[in-house]
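It is worth pausing here to work through a concrete case rather than discussing structure prediction in the abstract. The textbook approach is simple: state the sequence, then state the predicted structure, then interpret. We follow exactly that order.
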Amino acid sequence: MSKTPVETYKPSPGKLRASHLITTFGPGSLYPTEHDCVLIMGTNFWKTGNFSEKSHLYLQKITGKTHFLMPVKKDREQSIKCMSFPKWGSCKSCK
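Step two, the predicted structure:
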């Protein structure tokens, strides 16, 4: 038996920029996409192998850290996990 489009759907944060992840649309926030609204999952759900090391001298000095990790896409793999929100809905046309 083949899977329906609903079963194969994987929510995506779309074209969310890295700067949005540390400001407006960080973990736990709702992000509106073209056809869906997604909840950005916490960093403990993100793929750990898909990070690049970045340095920012001012932030390193303030926080006492040596570097920061930034999620990146490798081979079209999504590193930022999200889920559709809400998980249910109704059609306005057919109810």
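Step three, interpretation. Residues 5-84 form one domain. Residues 24 and 31 are 9 Å apart (CA to CA).
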